[in-house]
Design brief:
Blueprint lengths: L1 E4 L14 E6 L12 H15 L8 E6 L3 H24 L1
Parallel strand pairs: 1-3
Antiparallel strand pairs: 2-3
This protein binds zinc ion (ZN).
Zinc ion binds next to α1.
């Protein structure tokens, strides 16, 4: 089984279940699982092999990417802080 890392985050320290999503590619057909946690993805892959390729040991590829939950929210939080500051300044000027 070959591991393929997608995206710039090639650091290995981030590979802790929640931070990383895995997509499992079938080696026999064009099937691939959705982006899932490692154990869930592996389960889907094995289920697919059991259903579609009985007798074939699971192979193919694992694609790994980092989940970046913080990027969008960081900007939103900055905007919220700016709004609060504006409200305070407006309140002080009265
Ligand atoms: Zn398949």
């Amino acid at each position: 089984m070959t591991k393929v890392t997608v995206g710039s985050g090639a650091h290995t320290e981030g590979r802790r279940g929640v931070d990383v999503a895995n997509r499992y590619w079938c080696g026999e057909c064009s099937f691939k699982t959705p982006w899932l946690g490692e154990s869930e993805g592996l389960r889907r892959q094995i289920e697919h092999y059991a259903g579609r390729h009985p007798g074939t040991p699971p192979g193919g590829q694992v694609e790994t990417r980092r989940r970046d939950p913080g990027t969008g929210h960081g900007c939103l939080r900055l905007a919220a802080v700016a709004l609060v500051l504006l409200a305070i300044v407006a309140a002080c000027r009265r």
